[in-house]
Amino acid sequence: LDWQYGTYVWPCAVVLAQYLWTHRRSLAGKRVLEVGAGVSLPGVVAAKCGAEVVLSDGEELPHCLQSCRRSCRANRLPHVPVLGLTWGRVSPELLALPPIDIILGSDVFFDPKDFEDILTTVYFLLEKNPHAQFWTTYQVR
């Protein structure tokens, strides 16, 4: 994929952000991790609604991580951590994550070759956080 894919707000991010806004009253104080965040629209909305958010994208995609940081700065959210997490890889960063209530993934199911890795990562997080939920939006392609 072209590196610019991580710097574009895809329609699925808008749909997930709208869902978060609709449920904003339930987000205050929740611990949220956005995976494959890109420009981080859903994560930014969750943070603006009072959630404790961690944004993540592939550790091998520094432009995406920088995009997450830019979104945080533009939205006056300098306290939101941005982590490099590679789907399918159990890294020290993944192991060190604090407890999570909600995992966000907007359009992470875009390339079938990544499905197993993203599901492995989400499964690991749900096993570690049995009460957590995975909120995702995807576009059938």
UniProtKB/TrEMBL annotation:
Question: Which InterPro entries does the record cross-reference, listed alphabetically?
Answer: Methyltransf_16, SAM-dependent_MTases_sf
**Which superkingdom, per the lineage?**
Eukaryota
Kindly give the Pfam families that the UniProt entry links to this protein.
Methyltransf_16 (PF10294)
Q: Which GO terms describe its molecular function?
A: methyltransferase activity
**Sorted UniProt keywords:** Methyltransferase, S-adenosyl-L-methionine, Transferase
The yes or no answer to whether the keyword Cell inner membrane is present is: no
Please tell me one Gene Ontology term that the record gives under cellular component.
cytoplasm
List this protein's GO terms for biological process.
Answer: methylation
Family label = Belongs to the methyltransferase superfamily. METTL23 family.
The protein in question is named MET23 protein
Give the organism the record lists: Pedionomus torquatus (Plains-wanderer)
